[in-house]
Amino acid sequence: DIVMTQSPLSLPVTLGQPASISCRSSQSLVYSDGRTCLHWFQQRPGQSPRRLINDVSNRDSGVPDRFSGSGSGTDFTLKISSVEAEDVGIYYCMQYTSWPHTFGQGTKLEIK
Amino acid sequence: EVQLVESGGGLAQPGGSLRLSCAASGFSFSGSWMSWVRQTPGEGLEWVAHMNYDGSEKYYVGSVKGRLTISRDNAQNALYLQMNSLRIDDTAVYFCVAWSPPHSHWGRGTLVTVSS
């Protein structure tokens, strides 16, 4: 199974400041068709997860442009340009290059 | 409005069975891959099972193979998870997830507790 490792696991951020979450996979996430199969999800307290970023860098519908994704191969990053109060929650990366699809451990973002 | 409503969770004894259901509406169910993803209390997310549009392809995480079975009824816009030989470590909130490109939709989840 592909292991997804996120860092940090806890991320205290001051409102208005940027935030960055790293996700590393134990093997390349490039699929045979050339796609890189990585999504980012946000789970706010008491809510279900929702996808923020698909295929490394594409924002899902309705996702604010302060969220951005980047990376390639085995190293990926989710960035928030200016953290707002509604961004509090847990962020997960997920690979779907191979089965079983696997998630990172989650990064808990909180406001300082 | 997209809706995924899970039901069927509850308390089961080790070795027992439960059948989860997910009622879908507001999107093309028959055009979507469907999954069950679980989250243990206070822990992270684990993909459990995954199925293509017509059920001809199914995938399971190793720990549930032979015990949990995913199925769907496109005429009823419904997804199911038959859970047999339940173990204590199956205790989790089970989410129904739809992959309807370019969208991903999640239900609110149903809690399964396995305890004697």
Q: Work out the largest interface and the residue count of each chain.
A: A-B, 21 and 18 residues
Could you estimate the helical fraction of the residues of chain B in percent? under 10%
Fraction of residues of chain A in helices?
Answer: under 10%
H-E order of chain B:
EEEEEEEEEEE
Q: Gap between N and C termini of chain B, in Å?
A: 40 Å
Instruction: Tell me the Rg of chain B in angstroms.
Output: 13 Å
Number of strands of chain B: 11
Please describe the biggest sheet of chain B, giving its number of strands, its sense, and whether it closes into a barrel.
Answer: 7 strands, mixed
Low-pLDDT residue spans of chain A = none
Distance between the termini of chain A: 36 Å
Mean pLDDT of chain B: 96
Write out key terms for the chains shown.
A: mainly beta; seven-stranded mixed sheet; four-stranded antiparallel sheet; 0% helix; 48% strand; B: 116 residues; mainly beta; 54% strand
Any overview of this molecule?
The complex is a heterodimer of chains A (112) and B (116). Helices cover 0% and strands 48% of the residues of chain A. The model of chain A has no long low-confidence stretch (mean pLDDT 97). Chain A has strands at 4-7, 10-13, 19-25, 38-43, 50-54, 58-59, 67-72, 75-80, 89-95, 102-103, 107-111. Chain A has 112 residues and is mainly beta. Chain B has 116 residues and is mainly β. Chain B has no helices and 11 strands. Chain B has strands at residues 3-7, 10-12, 18-25, 33-39, 45-51, 58-60, 68-73, 78-83, 92-100, 103-106, 110-114. In chain B, strands 2, 4, 5, 6, 9, 10 and 11 form a 7-stranded mixed β-sheet that branches. In chain B, strands 1-3-8-7 form a 4-stranded antiparallel β-sheet, with no helix packed on it. In chain B, a hairpin with a 6-residue loop joins strand 5 (45-51) and strand 6. The termini of chain B are far apart. The model of chain B has no long low-confidence stretch (mean pLDDT 96). The chains are: A mainly beta (112), B mainly beta (116).
